[in-house]
Write a structure and sequence with these properties.
CATH class of the largest domain: Mainly Beta
Number of domains: 2
Number of strands: 10
Order of helices and strands: HEEEEEEEEEE
Oligomer: single chain
Radius of gyration: 24 Å
Shape: globular
Largest sheet: 7 strands, antiparallel
């Protein structure tokens, strides 16, 4: 029969010291890590959705897509601190539902990144209405929650 050795006071002090050191290291690493700053979208609908994004990059308008989100899934659309107050989104679900607006941008049926928002048809693109997202002045990150559309 073997007996478990009882903890000695010295062993407990050593363990507590190591835990305290690990805790301090973890706190320092967390404090040194930059805060997350992204533009994200969460799909809180019952269907899979495809999402397109439009924004100004300081030089001109850019539209890009498609991000495909399963039901109850989230995705990062832009990484890093937000550079603008307004972003524009368009989404459609697999059943034909749309989240759209009156700000028109160029899109494509396949994956795309398009510069400019003029002459979409002439350049071989679709012209799609995006809805505006106001992230607020000086906001560094934002999450858009896409929900099922209310039925009248």
């Amino acid at each position: 029969m073997t007996r478990d050795k009882p903890f000695h006071r010295m062993n407990m002090d050593r363990i507590a010291g190591r835990l305290l050191a690990l805790s301090a290291l973890g706190t320092a690493l967390c404090a040194a890590a930059p805060a997350r700053a992204d533009l994200r979208m969460c799909n809180n609908t019952n269907n899979r959705v495809s999402v397109a994004l439009a924004y100004t990059d300081g030089q001109g308008w850019v539209s890009e897509g498609w991000w495909n989100l399963k039901s109850l899934d989230c995705v990062t659309l832009l990484r890093g601190a937000l550079a603008a107050q307004y972003y524009y989104l368009y989404a459609m679900d697999e059943r034909g539902g749309e989240w759209k607006g009156k700000v028109f941008m160029c899109t494509s049926d396949r994956e795309f990144k398009i510069e400019g928002r003029q002459d979409c048809f002439v350049r071989g693109y679709n012209r799609t209405g995006f809805f505006e997202v106001d992230t607020g002045k000086d906001t560094k990150s934002w999450t858009v929650q896409l929900t099922d559309q209310a039925t009248p």
